[in-house]
Write a structure and sequence with these properties.
Oligomer: single chain
Structural class: alpha+beta
Number of helices: 4
Largest sheet: 8 strands, antiparallel
Distance between the termini: 73 Å
Radius of gyration: 28 Å
Order of helices and strands: HEEEEHHEEEEH
Strand content: 25-35%
Mean pLDDT: 88
Shape: globular
Low-confidence stretches: 1-22
Length: 205
């Protein structure tokens, strides 16, 4: 009996040793992080009398300039890029990647609301300002994009400015495109801006 017990203990010990020496399966490599959304290039902006120049893509929200949507998008998950021409024309694209699709939907809705009420808020801040604001329609791309125009003027000094804006979404990514120059809506490239908006949303993912 003692011999049998010794034999069994020896076999069990040998089995444990073999098990300990068996190779452990390698852990699966972590999935690569998804590529960040892509920005517009200078050549994808509406046609201008002088060429567009694209600035670098910067982290966070713009420090200034986006008066209609300032303070809405979070700095985390946001990047932006500015564009300019040799004339008094400029543009900007901002992209925010939200934590969830629901948050992206809520952000897009809040940005649209800010654009819809922007002119009224500007007039409250500056009673000498006049202008008109219009919803210029939906662009059917991914989860959709919406285009707005805001035409402002200061009659006392005779200056006029026109701004075109759009908000679009693809999944968790929300983009805002802004375009502005001296002049009135009649001289703005509205159809070209809608094409730019379509491209901006299509490039997100």
């Amino acid at each position: 009996m003692r011999t049998l017990r010794t034999t069994l203990l020896t076999a069990a010990a040998a089995g444990l040793a073999v098990t300990a020496l068996a190779p452990v399966p390698a852990a699966a490599a972590p999935a690569p992080a998804p590529a960040p959304p892509k920005f517009l290039s200078a050549g994808q902006l509406p046609a201008s009398l002088t060429p567009w120049t694209a600035g670098p893509v910067r982290q966070g929200v713009p420090a200034e300039g986006s008066v209609c949507t300032e303070g809405i998008a979070p700095a985390a998950g946001t990047r932006h890029r500015d564009f300019r021409t040799e004339l008094d024309t400029g543009a900007r694209q901002t992209i925010t990647v939200a934590a969830t699709t629901d948050r992206a939907k809520a952000l897009a809705a809040e940005l649209r609301s800010a654009l819809e009420t922007c002119l009224d808020r500007l007039k409250e801040q500056d009673p000498g300002l006049e202008g008109e604001a219009f919803y210029q329609g939906r662009v059917d791309i991914e989860e959709g994009a919406h285009v707005y125009s805001i035409d402002t003027s200061y009659p006392e000094v005779g200056s006029t400015d026109i701004g075109l804006y759009s908000v679009g979404r693809d999944g968790r990514a929300v983009t805002v495109v802004e375009w502005g120059q001296l002049g009135e809506l009649d001289g703005a490239p509205l159809e070209g801006f809608k094409k730019t908006t379509r491209t901006a949303v299509a490039k997100l993912y």
